[in-house]
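FAQ: What does a multi-protein file look like?

Like this. Sequence, then tokens, then the next protein.
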Amino acid sequence: MGKKSIDPYVRAPVVALHDAGLNQVDISKQLKVSRCCVQNAIKKYKQLGRFDDLQHTGRPKKLSGREIRHLKRLVKGDSRLSASKIASDLNTSIPKSITTRTIRRYLKDLSFEYVVKIKKQWLSARHRQQRIAWCKQYLNWAKDDWRKVTFSDESTFYVLKRKNQCEIWRLDKEKLLPECLQQTNTGDGGKIGIWGGISGFGTTIAKIYTENMNGQLYCNILQTELKRSMAKFPKKTKIIYQQDLAPWHTLGMVKEKITKLKLNVLDWAPKSPDLNPIEMLWSIVDKKLASKP
């Protein structure tokens, strides 16, 4: 254990009395401090020319500035190595032993966080180019232009067998009450599909179905629900129909039906972000189901 440093307010009178000609024994008696303390105070003052100590540098850093820069190169870029792999790589390139714990501490000091990667849809260079081209194509469209677009989509909802957890406040003795239970189902969980569309002129007729969506079902929706819905829109307005590139939307039979119905279809880039406003409606429905006990 190191010696305790002498406080500056003790050193100052020691030095003053020493300069006045008193010896160390007399200074010790007068100030009621040990002779060793007096001796050290005088010695420190002669060395530093000041009453307080120099600032302590603390424990030496494990990594040098150059090694820290090397550490940052290992953790950045495409590799994104783990702390254990970084420690292993550093130990092969520098003449010292670096632990995984040390690496984590340095990375934290450098403001790095160890988190799960955010999942995003993979996009190729071509996908990005098509997205940009789509944006440029419709860059100058005004509000009245977008008002003519009927945005459509299908979504699947599970009424009973839901993956989410419904949280409630209850007493322990109430845990088996019907209102405190979340219903489950061993079957398909009450799965239903909904097709619908919205535009500046109103909504389409919603189509609810229980089977899996396919080309024939989609053609029937175009022929029935969509056709009847568009009949309610202004007659002289050129309605534009929007659909994404789901597999059943690109089938030959669906393309023939679109041609037969003389639908003006909005171009849509592959793997487009969810800019379709009807997605907001699906989100509301899903949250309502999630809050259902």
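And here is the next protein:
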Amino acid sequence: MKKLILSTIASAALVTASWAGGKLVEPPHVPPVVVDNWSGPYVGLQAGYLAGKATVTPMSGDAFTLKPNGIAGGLFAGYNWLTPSNLLFGVEADINGVSASKSKELFRRDSAYVEPISIYKFEQNWDASLRLRVGGVIEDKYLIYATGGATWAGVKASYTNALSVTTSEKKTLNGWTLGAGVEMKVTDNVNARLQYRYNSYSKKQFNLGPSSVKYKNNMIQAGVSYKFN
């Protein structure tokens, strides 16, 4: 009987504690802790394919086009900020070594014959950019983003005359770049990505020929990065 009385008193106390003013008091809601695995500095490696187009306009003669294609790979680094609404803003810089070249044999034409007189070669050796990134994070694992900013390219033009004497001239081109990419978390600190960029550069005058060159290219690269905590 004593145990029954004590049990009844304890049950009544629990019921009384659960009610306040006739209403059931629920425990306070504790929202889940959201871990931001995107914000912060990062560095990475990237490699891919470059397809260029150089429009060469000699001082005398018709303009012609060279399409240097090749590989481009290097380093990138940046910093991301993730907002509570899963919008991501970032800044990124990269530099790539490039191996892409194309040459064209030029001819002298008259009424009797066509004679090769020179070879014009155009090549790109490196690429660099400084860009902003804006995108959206999906399920804390995927990022879809757009990117754009300033870009630079190291190029070289070579001219071989009829006597097989070659002269070369190097230039640094400046321009703008736009692109887009998708990024995926492999671990909390390691990301993999695929990115496309279109680069357009201002026209540059070369003493070879002499000639002016208007250059642009398309780049697609895969990369992997490490984010620091």
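Q: Is there any per-entry metadata?
A: Some entries carry free-text notes. For the entry above: Residues 144 and 182 are 5 Å apart (CA to CA).
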